[in-house]
Specification:
Layout lengths: L2 H27 L17 H23 L3 H27 L3 H25 L1 H6 L1 H21 L6
Helix pairs in contact: 1-2, 1-3, 2-3, 3-4, 4-6
């Protein structure tokens, strides 16, 4: 795969995740989410799209950078699997939390996503330190998401009545 195709692939997969995630998030945000008491340290609503757009750009750059630094097709496949797994877990969290209102199940997913992202950062560092560093803001945001998810479970229980 040439570098331009790798770049386009990284952009496509990440933007697809953004679009699917936004669709799933909007169902909850437009209905039940606004009525809930928010946990401590919940950022204002306008911060979320700004933060996520920056994070998605960093993910694209990290994904691409690690792809072009891969030493062999097996390493490239491993990198692809790591990024696609993160993106899939992100979609699954959005579906579970915002679309279904299953806060406790979403908490389990976001904890798994945090652990997996830490693993990815660790693995990527040996391939491309830049790729690993670019995922640090994402990891920080995921830790905030886990904190907020814990707060929602504490304040509202395991699920929201939709």
């Amino acid at each position: 795969m040439t570098n331009i195709y790798k770049l386009l692939y990284c952009i496509f997969m990440t933007v697809l995740t953004l679009i699917i995630g936004a669709f799933l998030n909007n169902k909850g945000v437009d209905t039940w989410y606004q009525q809930l008491q928010k946990p401590l340290f919940t950022p204002p609503d306008y911060i979320f799209p700004i933060a996520w757009n920056i994070i998605y750009i960093l993910i694209i750059i990290s994904f691409y950078q690690s792809f072009i630094k891969a030493n062999n097709p097996q390493q490239e496949a491993h990198i692809n699997g790591m990024f696609l797994s993160q993106l899939l877990l992100h979609i699954l969290w959005s579906f579970t939390f915002f679309y279904c209102g299953y806060m406790a199940f979403a908490l389990i997913i976001v904890i798994v996503l945090n652990i997996f992202t830490i693993y990815c950062i660790y693995r990527l560092y040996s391939i491309s330190p830049l790729s690993a560093w670019l995922l640090i803001p994402y990891q920080g945001w995921l830790l905030l998401a886990a904190w907020l998810n814990i707060g929602f479970v504490y304040l509202h229980g395991y699920t929201v009545n939709l």
